[in-house]
């Protein structure tokens, strides 16, 4: 199946629009209007999306987003900037790393609002990466990880006693114990306060979503 970038390339080829395979580095001198024109197309689609959002028109929102992808890929072809999936993922990972640095910088400078904005950006980036990778069941995957995490606690005293006995036999922790939180029994090492897993803890089964 052809990628979006490849499909727009076919469109450009058929309609005689620029189709560059190498970076158009001298576009500023040779073709000073190409970027402003392409940017105007992108802004136009953003405006259409915002208007459709105000009108709560889901069809027009989808149309604007599809058109936005089309004109962005078109700009890529005009400028010789490859926007295929692999390249997008590399850029997204780079942006993710840079945003983590930004979060750390906000922390060092005690800018709480900056940290809040950064965390929101990081969350959106994770979801974008998941979508880019084709993880259409990402919500179900997340809930499976949550199920696994919650299996680390015990729900009855039998599991508590067996878990404590397991850790005592293992002899890695000095004082395996438990505490009650809501309806759960949390196993932990009283010496270090380290949270320990229920002896019946189950790893997340993410393979089921790829069968």
From TrEMBL:
Gene3D superfamilies from the UniProt entry: putative ntp pyrophosphohydrolase like domain
Pfam family, one: PRA-PH
Family matches, as InterPro entries: NTP-PPase_DR2231-like, NTP_PyroPHydrolase-like_dom_sf, PRib-ATP_PPHydrolase-like
Name listed for the protein in its UniProt record: Uncharacterized protein
Native source organism of the sequence: viral metagenome
């Amino acid at each position: 199946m052809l990628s979006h970038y490849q499909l727009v390339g076919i469109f450009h080829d058929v309609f005689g629009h620029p189709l560059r395979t190498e970076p158009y580095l001298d576009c500023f001198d040779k073709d000073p209007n190409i970027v402003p024109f392409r940017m105007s197309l992108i802004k136009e689609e953003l405006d259409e999306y915002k208007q459709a959002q105000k009108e709560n028109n889901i069809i027009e929102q989808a149309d604007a987003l599809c058109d936005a992808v089309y004109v962005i890929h078109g700009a890529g072809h005009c400028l010789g900037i490859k926007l295929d999936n692999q390249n997008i993922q590399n850029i997204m990972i780079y942006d993710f790393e840079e945003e983590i640095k930004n979060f750390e910088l906000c922390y060092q400078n005690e800018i709480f609002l900056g940290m809040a904005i950064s965390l929101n950006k990081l969350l959106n980036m994770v979801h974008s990466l998941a979508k880019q990778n084709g993880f259409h069941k990402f919500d179900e995957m997340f809930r499976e990880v949550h199920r696994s995490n919650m299996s680390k606690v015990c729900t009855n005293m039998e599991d508590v006693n067996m878990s404590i006995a397991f850790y005592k036999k293992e002899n890695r922790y000095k004082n395996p114990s438990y505490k009650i939180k809501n309806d759960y029994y949390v196993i932990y090492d009283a010496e270090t306060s380290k949270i320990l897993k229920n002896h019946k803890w189950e790893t997340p089964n993410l393979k089921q979503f790829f069968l």
